[in-house]
Amino acid sequence: MIDKVVEDIDAAIADIGDGATVMIGGFGRAGQPVDLIDALIRQGATDLTIVNNNAGNGDVGLARLIQLGRVRKIMCSFPRQSDSWHFDEKYRAGQIELELVPQGNLAERIRAAGAGIGAFYTPTGVGTQIADGKESRTIDGREYILEYPIRADFALIQAFRGDRLGNLVYRETARNFGPIMASAATATIVQVDEIVEVGGIDPEAVVTPGIFVDRVVPVGYRPWLDADGAFIGGVDVNGEPVPAAGAEKGGEA
Amino acid sequence: MATRISRIELAKRVAADIPEGAYVNLGIGAPTLVADHLPEGRQIVLHTENGMLGMGAAPDAAHVDPDLINAGKQAVTANPGAAYFHHADSFGMMRGGHLDFCVLGAFEVSQAGDLANWSTGEPGAIPAIGGAMDLAIGAKQVCVMTDLLTKDGRSKLVAECDYPLTGTHCVTRVYTDHAVFDVTPDGFAVVERFGDTTHAELEQLTGLRLVDRTAG
After folding, report:
1. pLDDT at site B1
2. Which of A89, A159, B59, B116 minimizes the number of CB atoms within 10 Å of its CB?
3. pTM: predicted TM-score of the whole model, two decimal places
4. CATH fit for domain A9-118+150-218, picks 2.102.10.10, 3.40.50.11540, 3.40.1080.10, 3.20.20.120
5. Which residues on A lie below 8 Å from B46 (Cβ)?
């Protein structure tokens, strides 16, 4: 019987070794596999290459991993943020390598890896610094540059619900990099709010089919959902609790 | 003295040019304001590159959902008929030429329509591209919304960009606080001046020879 459920989150990421390339899903707080990242921080693997859209925010998650000096290289599209101070410090000190990739090229390079594409020509970045040193070709009168896939040893992603076969659905814009990263890693480890019975996800609605998933770790509903997975709010856009809003206004708008 | 219009007035001016039925991406920063001023009665579908079509207005505080955000990582809502998708599909919509209109910010725009908006190239500066390069080459019509002058008084319209490029020959129109400019084979053409601003003042502010294509 196929059963990809791993209840113990530390066991689920135990084999991430020093020097591994790890994709981490998420765009802002949305889709960030915060429990898996915390487990990776506890686990101790170092000399990591991280693939993420950003380079950490604040003092937690990926930012903490960077602060601890565990990231050798990061591949991302948008490292500069108002709260990316740990990356900024390491970068200016020459203690972290950056491969800056336009966001669409990042996504397509990840997708290409999962889809078995050897390389592809893209118009994004033509005539810019991104094109320096890359092969280019004119096709039907338009110039393109050659970009190569990004593969990883591990992908850490967040989904909303999963089953023991690894079928996944996401929630709103938290889907972002999840489906493509799941396809591009040797081992894909997913934190889900809830495990449902096999057959509990409509086959028409499965976003990531289980073939792309290796381990599914249930972590409980995210703080802005109730015990049935319905939205209750009470958080800011970063998921931090805020005092009961609408108490004076009477709640529902 | 040349007349300037406010950010809000400029956002309204940009919004007025977005046609019925358009699929539109609004860049991070000032262009986001355009969303609040879309003309009544037109169905315009907003794309946000982190993975949604049909983006709606900001929610009230009680309905902030960290899973539902725009490319600037601000809380938004989903309009009826919205769709979610992953990043490769989202950027395929841009690169594949499916978006009708996008509005970006700029450090510099050249007479040839080259755009620089991601790096000042200063040593020690932390770079950030995000989706700008994909948008610049992807949308059918790429517009820039910006102040004409930098904080220290330099024109953002230039003969050639000094800053690292985001894309080449991609900008078609520039909406500024002084005037609206089209990129043409003859250089920048002024298509609309705001308030008392004169053509001569615009040429003085930009240091460029400008074509006059204003209606009146």
Report:
1. 60
2. A89
3. 0.95
4. 3.40.1080.10
5. none
